[in-house]
């Protein structure tokens, strides 16, 4: 009989699943504090409920994958794209703050993101 290799529980996957579930709980808690009365059945509370439900499904699915060891292997971290995107975002925020314009800042953010 061939033995299958021992699968390990993916701790990072479980942490991500927990964060997704916490975020779903936060969205759900925020819905309960929403004091908007709508004469329609589909009011402003519906979309946060859908988002919260989707986050719960993603969290459960990620937890199952992490417990089974089915999550794909992670790639090595490349800092260059992260630095480029964060730099473009910083340029956008600074240009909006000093009155340089949204269009120029957005163009810089697009350029740095596409270069990443």
From TrEMBL:
UniProt key word Transmembrane: yes
InterPro entries: DUF1468
Record carries keyword Transmembrane: yes
Pfam families: TctB
Positions of transmembrane segments: 12-29, 49-67, 79-111
Domain of life, source organism: Bacteria
Record key words, sorted: Membrane, Transmembrane, Transmembrane helix
The protein's name: Tripartite tricarboxylate transporter TctB family protein
Species annotation: Microvirga tunisiensis
């Amino acid at each position: 009989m061939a033995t299958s290799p021992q699968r390990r529980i993916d701790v990072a996957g479980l942490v991500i699943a927990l964060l997704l579930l916490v975020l779903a709980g936060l969205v759900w808690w925020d819905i309960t504090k929403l004091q908007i009365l709508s004469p329609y059945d589909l009011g402003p509370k519906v979309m946060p409920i859908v988002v919260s439900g989707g986050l719960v499904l993603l969290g459960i699915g990620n937890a199952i994958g992490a417990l089974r060891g089915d999550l794909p292997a992670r790639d090595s971290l490349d800092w260059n794209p992260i630095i480029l995107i964060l730099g473009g975002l910083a340029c956008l925020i600074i240009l909006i703050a000093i009155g340089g314009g949204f269009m120029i800042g957005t163009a810089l953010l697009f350029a740095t993101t596409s270069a990443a």
